[in-house]
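We emphasize that the prediction below concerns an isolated chain of 214 residues; any contacts that depend on oligomerization or on bound cofactors are therefore not represented. The input was used exactly as deposited, without trimming of termini.
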Amino acid sequence: MGSCCSTDYRRFFNRKFAARDLRRYREDGLSKTARDLVALCGSVDGATILEVGGGIGALQLELLEAGALRATNVELSGGYEDAAAELFAGRDVERRIADFVEADVPPHDVVLMHRVVCCYPDAALLVGTAAARTRRRLALTVPQQRRWIGWGFAAINAWLRLSRCGFRTYLHPFGRIDAAASANGLRLEERRRRGLIWESAAWSRLPEDAGVAE
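Result of the prediction step, given as a token string:
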């Protein structure tokens, strides 16, 4: 992601945005799409978790409580850090502020991205990097391929341009996402649609490629 877009991303996903996320999570728990993603991760007992663009870290907290060993969050915006510190309250979670595709992050058992691919201009690069860091399972949530969703994204981007914000949304073809995961030794296992907007999917590493991400 370019430096200009990165700056606007940080302005968009700021402390105020994070505080609202924390309040919503405490009052209502995970959203339905987030719960789908947790389910698609499968058994995480003793697993290491890597979340890309994890925000305050609610998904990581749920997976740690489900038995995960430890979690790493790579987030482009530092605006989430105060809310995350309040949420985890001393739990040992590694948090990095970086563009994930440029970060030196070791492989983890389970990698997840919740509504993140639609915020990144190069889906193949982002998903391919995440897949290369996946030992066992990659799970993500993206917008469904519907024409009217594309119109909605175009309207959002028009508003962002008028607001002089460099941040943009993207409706990447699912085939491109699957191809990037497959090129890194992962096999699509399941897709779940939630309502009219979002869908979640999970890939598992093929047995013959189990050592690729070591």
